[in-house]
Predict the structure.
Amino acid sequence: DTGVSQNPRHKITKRGQNVTFRCDPISEHNRLYWYRQTLGQGPEFLTYFQNEAQLEKSRLLSDRFSAERPKGSFSTLEIQRTEQGDSAMYLCASSYFPGQGNQPQHFGDGTRLSIL
Amino acid sequence: GQNIDQPTEMTATEGAIVQINCTYQTSGFNGLFWYQQHAGEAPTFLSYNVLDGLEEKGRFSSFLSRSKGYSYLLLKELQMKDSASYLCAVDNYGQNFVFGPGTRLSVLP
């Protein structure tokens, strides 16, 4: 079990550019979540997948944000036309959902995005 | 709406006991999780409550009262390495976790 892996760890880009982040979940986990975290705040939920299906995306911050999990394994989060306010830590988490009940989510180390 | 409250900061002495409170109002409830987050690192899972009562895991215990919308995390025999942010998160029927703002704990020698 290598844990949840995210890359890049840091991304610095100019305003208006597009960025894409990747998340590789724990292999046996069927659920994958994306969060955004700003300094001094708790993580803010963005979207989640069960296998390849995106089950909740209404919390994505704007239509500039999109996420995919094409084969039910790794996922990507894309931000188009970045803005200053997009600067934050983007966290990915995964969990195993057995059909009922719940399991804790396991987080990756995040991708820190800085918009110049 | 969704609202989770925690104290912003707490300070305690090495070897002491500290209780971090969390109150919540969420549209759904399927369990409450506590996470520890050191600065610049990922949140790590500490404890989980879905039924009322106390769950104990070593130096950490967590309590839940669903009728009061209240939980606390109890840390015993504090160590310097326990200095971190502690995040309370409500599982909103498995669709997403709603996190509180976190409590930054400083452990002093």
Remarks:
- The interface with chain A takes residues 4, 30-31, 33, 35, 41-45, 48, 50, 87, 89, 91, 94-102 of chain B (CB under 8 Å).
- The two ends of chain B are 41 Å apart (CA to CA).
